[in-house]
Amino acid sequence: MDSASSDSSMARERYSPAPSTATSTGSTEAPTISMPGAYIADKEKTPDENSKLRTLMGILRKFIGVSDIASVRFSLPAQLLEPTPNLEYWNYLDRPETFISIGDSEDELGRMLAVLRFWFTKDLKYVKGKPCKPYNSTLGEFFRCNWEVEDSAPPILGEAKKVTATTSTDSTGRRVRVSYLTEQTSHHPPVSAFYVDCPAKGITARGFDQLSAKFTGTSIRVTPGAHNLGIFITVHSRDNEQYQLTHPAAHLGGLIRGSLSVTVADTCFITCPKTKIKVILHYQEESWLGKTQNRILGVIYTCDPQNDDRTRIKDVPEKDILARLEGCWTEQVYYTLIDSKESKLLVDLNPLFPIPKIVPPPTSQLPNESQRFWDAVTSAILNKQYGQATKLKQELEERQRVKAAERAERNEEWRPRFFEQAVTPDGKPELTEEGKKVLRGLQKEDWQLAESTVTGA
Question: Which of 180, 146, 178 is nearest to 359 (CA)?
Fold first, then answer.
């Protein structure tokens, strides 16, 4: 993926605005570049990190046997936290150019392979960075940003048309704007809704993020929560072709030896009802001995997704198989078409790094916008004033508890500002008119937004 790797240097370059047909009507102050330090981190251990892990282990031991520590009310001291808001840290656009290219191929299988390329790049932060614990999001907190990427990811299979959905002009090599909005819609359980929009390429994504976590005594097992049904991608330029991508369980290990690492040993699925193509991805169990392999096996096949309940690769009939996948999900993944013996590179993660976000200037951020909301805590942590940071963090958490109690007294239900509901049965959040307005504003770099009349903290 040469064109993708050419963008890796962007992680360290200053942002320069992309050419746009939209006129900026927002603040004259320039937007800022943002990328959490944990995205690209020095993995060398320091004495300070060893001390943090010992403290964390002491806290976690209290939760052995608890079914879901993510839903338990407890507050970590500030020195154990990454100075990054959770809503900024947690997203799937580490390499947006793979996302905007999903609909390019004229071939249905080619588009599914493009979805898979996006899938393996969406979590680069865990491959290139270090596991960390961001701030817990507060109710009503939100984050918005843009990415600017070159539309140059090559087609994987078949002919491709790189055109803008809005003007039907050739978009090859042009810089494209991708906008992102996420809001904490529920506090108990903790759930956030997100929406990704790229009008130029006619593609969107949405979903709910919710995690369930259990401490086993030696590691933390993290699984999708009940409201997290995956990522839902819609390719509007392909007659609203939709893909559902479910999340596998992961393990955070290395707590005892003092070297945190993320491993995955589970099965997940990607399904497109319109093309009747489905993927089973199997992240293989790691051996107790030897180096971590991070091996992945997969199969792409045709089926009736509404009635297909197969969960194992070996259960898929050979006649239905279109291609097979194998490789290392932290390095290189290959695919082999069923009528060929030649394996082809799907994605090479080695030269890739997360691309920084473009966020509103500080003066245009609202009080409940993630970076501004946590600014004092972040500043204290960066200055190693951990006692002050913990105090400020606890004040914000207490403010949230007080407001929740006041709503309960009034028998008042919390309603998100940018999404219609806190959760939905189908896992697909719907934007409110204000949410749609925010995304339109982001596309124009119009950062102006009225302050929230009601806040959760």
Answer: 146
Under DSSP, the state recorded for 79 is: G
Sign of the alpha-carbon dihedral angle for 367, 371, 374, 377: negative
Q: Which amino acid is at 34?
A: S
Per DSSP, the three-state class of 364 is helix
pLDDT in tens, 101-119: 999 999 999 999 999 999 9
Distance from chain centroid for Cα 69: 21
**Global pTM?**
0.88
Whether 292 contacts 263, CB under 8 Å: yes
The string of pLDDT tens digits covering residues 296-324 is 999 999 999 889 999 999 999 999 999 99
Please provide the distance, in angstroms rounded to a whole number, between the alpha carbons at the two ends of the chain: 44
Among all chains, which residue has been given the structure tokens 């030269």? Answer: 351
Q: Which of 42-46, 71-75, 131-135 has the highest mean pLDDT?
A: 131-135
9 DSSP 8-state letter: G
Please count the CA atoms within 13 angstroms of the CA of 262 that sit on its side-chain side.
19
For residue 372, CA distances in Å to 189, 369, 399, 446 come to 24, 6, 16, 18
